[in-house]
Design brief:
It comes from Bowmanella dokdonensis. The protein is an alpha+beta fold. The chain is 26% helix and 18% strand. It has one domain: Glutaredoxin. Helix 1 links the parallel strand 3 and strand 4.
Amino acid sequence: MTHSVHDFDMLLTNGQKQSLAEFKGKVLLIVNTASQCGFTPQYEGLEKLYQDYREKGFVVLAFPCDQFGHQEPGSDESIQEFCSLNFNLSFPLFRKTLVNGDQAAPLFEHLKTHAPGVLGSKSIKWNFTKFLIDTEGQVIKRYAPTTKPEQLRNDIESLLNKN
């Protein structure tokens, strides 16, 4: 039985295993992303949040996903290159991940169970759905793809100030 986001291991784009337990004590924002989506410019806002708060214990974790409109067709290497060249991303970027369906990553099943969408729906509706996680690895809130990263500042600050 998983009790926290810290119970999961995921693969980074370079294939290296990343234990999410290494993020204990940090506030996390977990996002399913895509390179060819109308929301792709949110990468810029996510990087700004990371730059502004990382010294205070905040990390963005991006999980590219190709389940919505085939908007992430590339390889892990091409996704990494795209994000570096276009957005100069410095936060962790993971391997392409399934977030819905029978093959969905257990991490995303955990997130959806602990922060269902509108009307209690579990499935993720589109790219750039965001999950805010506290320092204990508990899912605090789910945000719609249309919620811009800068709109999360108050929630992030309030979690950072709890420590």
